[in-house]
Amino acid sequence: MNIKFVRIKKLKTLLIFMLCLGLIMPGQLAFANKYTEYESVELRESGSNVFKKYEPVNLMISGIDVFSDAPGITVNGRTIVPVSAILVELGVKYKWNGTTKEISFSYGGKDVVMQINNAYATINGKKTLLPDSVAPRIMTYKSITGDYVDRTYVPLKFISDVLGLSASWINDTRTVAINKKAQTLTGTYVDVYKPYPEIRFKVTGEVDVTSFVVDGADVGGQDKTIIDFQNTKLTPPSGATVKNGVWTYNIVDDIFGIDKIEIAQTNDNPYNTRVTIYQNERRGNDIFYDAAKKEMVVQLINTVSEVSVDNIYSTDTVVIGTRETPYYNVDVSGKQLTVDVINSYLRINDGAYQVLPVDQGKIETIAYQQLDTSKDDMYGPDMEVTRVTIQLNEKMTYDDFYVEESGDKLLVYITNQPINNFNYVKQSSEKGMMSIDLFSKTDYTSTFDAQTRKISLDIPKDKTDLGTFEQAINDHVVDQFVISETASNYHIEITLAENTTYTKSSSSSAIVLNFTNTVIQNSDNKKTLIVIDAGHGGKDPGAVGSKSQEKELTLRASKLLQSELERLGFRVYMTRSTDEYVGLYDRPAIANDLGATLFVSIHINAFTNSSASGVEVLYGNESMSSDKGLAQNIQTQLIKSLGAVDRGIGYLPRLVVLKETTMPSVLCELGFITNAAEQDKLISEDYLKKAASAMATGIVNFLK
Ligand SMILES: [Zn+2]
């Protein structure tokens, strides 16, 4: 394959057009539930026809929340869990024999056969009494949608005694944490001589790790990658710089965009060692275990986590989401466009080849894969390359598309209409800049109509080359751009947002307009950072209604709340802004790390009785009167604005996001997806906008 190296015009700064109508990536299928938001769940013992209420428990395996089709519960102070959910999460295949009522599986060198209502199991052919002489039993869970789910339950102790794993009970959040056996982290160093630089951690054995990123630079702080070494004790080596329990490892000269690494023991039941990598440049990573050296390795390399199709500047655009500013090759051959993201790992579908049907404009399909560079003479075998192939329905040349680096995204515009000469950049919450590149200096006319808030520019057609397009922006600085043409001119119409002023400057090579929203610029609210947490996402749909899923509604409501708060001058950080899963413990950790002022989690309710409806706001810290105050302020406004049933505010201390946050935090349940009439309301943009506006008013009133 002949790949030409093409570096098409690079934008100087970050673009913000991310109007996502992207494809939904096929993900892991899971029977998600939201037990954590319930006070109780209903189950029935086999042989009984009476459903009883039990307290649900959260399940976490290797630091990752488990979404099982039946919940873990406590019975008479003993925690019992659905064994199939644990086995599935551990990747263990099991067999169920309905006649003999036996479950059999192999794990950790043990062949296990156990039978319902029999306290003896067969382990490696030997009859063995199960922990505390408790037999596995079948229980029936009555789900929120009224389905009955039969599952085999075993005591938690089974997990440690039979599977040889470590099981801890976290009482605060009523969570069972299941991990590999505990290990110790004893040292760290950086290896720069590898194809990709590596941060290596000396450990006594393999550990499970989870990681998340905090894009702090977006809200005036610093970018970080945070890695949790699950069930890992920290013993810093002698000579390490340790202060207040935090071991700091400085990186000389900011090498690879990394400033320093902090390592701390953040929990001791189970042990958690948290590694925080401070970054001056956004870096991706891959984490693996080097068994020969007994080291956990954090390899610094870009990652591709999204490939989707969007419509940007009214142009069909393939969006390749990466972690770092991407380095890439582009090739066009007939109806096929190939984009290689060099030095990157594909984080979708485990890197395996996958084709997605698109059928939008000229794009027929998009496909992606981690390239086998050992079989490709274009790249060396040590290089990691993600290949995205765009199949078109007509032949193209290099003039028919163009590629733009936009922060950590690569945008491939499929167009016959070059739009190279028009740029709009949102520089900060209150500032934006538009520039139009010129072939040579020109006289142009501009007018501003204060009534309609429209700026009109007329530029002679021989001085630049613009397409015609219409693009809504609505970023509180600019509302809209419209470009049309007459016989001799391009006519550009810019609608300014409320409170935006502008200045003009131009040179022989460009016309530049700078916009400033003066109300946001002068707002005291800028001091306040609000973290919005759109509930669920990705593998976890949350509650599922007849027409919608909780995760979609929470994201829409969260984005509307974000917009409303930004309009009021607040700094806002979203724990997620796409359909991705963020760990239950990572959400509060992000807010804590950012030192946020408030944390607002957004959810949609569900109940077995479809007549249940209304709004409630939950808080988790009774001693912190501010939590209750924030909840009450938001609840009052939501009821006033939505006219929904007032379910009041509720104290739910075991909710992870409320328990773990160190600032006033609330969880808003905006209505019931299981109530047909309320679901219809929740789907409508108007209702969600009202809810967002009410929540913002509640926040403002609380902060007064
Ligand atoms: Zn929820």
From TrEMBL:
Q: Which residues form the signal peptide?
A: none
Gene3D superfamilies noted in UniProt: Copper amine oxidase-like, N-terminal domain, Zn-dependent exopeptidases
| InterPro entries registered for this protein in UniProt | Cu_amine_oxidase-like_N (IPR012854), Mao_N_sf (IPR036582), MurNAc-LAA_cat (IPR002508), N-acetylmuramoyl_amidase_3 (IPR050695)
Spell out the Pfam families in the cross-references.
Answer: Amidase_3, Cu_amine_oxidN1
Molecular function (GO) terms for this protein are: N-acetylmuramoyl-L-alanine amidase activity
UniProt-listed Enzyme Commission number(s): 3.5.1.28
Q: Which residues form the MurNAc-LAA domain?
A: 588-700
Q: Which UniProt keywords apply?
A: Hydrolase
The protein's matches in PANTHER family, at most eight in alphabetical order, are given as:
N-ACETYLMURAMOYL-L-ALANINE AMIDASE, N-ACETYLMURAMOYL-L-ALANINE AMIDASE AMIC
Q: What is this protein called?
A: N-acetylmuramoyl-L-alanine amidase
The organism is Fusibacter bizertensis
